[in-house]
Design brief:
The chain is mainly beta. 0% of the residues lie in helices and 52% in strands. The protein contains no helices and eleven strands. The strands form two sheets. Strands 2, 4, 5, 6, 9, 10 and 11 form a seven-stranded mixed β-sheet that branches. It has a four-stranded antiparallel β-sheet with strand order 1-3-8-7, with no helix packed on it. Strand 4 and strand 5 form a beta hairpin. The model has no long low-confidence stretch (mean pLDDT 97).
Length: 114
């Protein structure tokens, strides 16, 4: 059974970098042909795709974030990570890691506030 679990700080100060980790169990993140994404949902808004890393380690970041979002992985830990720089209160959201569009983590709320 494939499971994804997000982890990271629940509170980040404005202008800092938000870092989240997704720990995957049940399948290797290097296994073909899977893609691993980060999504978020801000209060009262729809889901927003942030970026993806594929099984080869190739990344695609959403241009909506203007270079602030970065995805990487640690294959030794079977984890992939999201870094979002220069955060503002508008980055307050529930952040999800996802395999394809079918398997979702439970989500983690990140609040940006001083």
């Amino acid at each position: 059974q494939v499971q994804l679990q997000e982890s990271g700080p629940g509170l980040v100060k404005p202008s800092q970098t938000l870092s989240l980790t997704c720990t995957v169990s049940g399948v290797l993140i290097t296994a073909s042909p899977y893609y691993w994404s980060w999504m978020r949902q801000a209060p009262g808004k729809g889901l927003e795709w942030m970026g993806v890393i594929d099984y080869r380690g190739t990344t695609y970041d959403s241009p909506s974030f203007k270079g602030r979002a970065s995805i990487s992985r640690d294959t030794s830990k079977n984890q992939f990570t999201l870094q979002l720089s220069s955060v503002t209160p508008e980055d307050t959201a529930v952040y999800y890691c996802v395999r394809g569009l079918a398997v979702w983590g439970q989500g983690t709320l990140v609040t940006v506030s001083s």
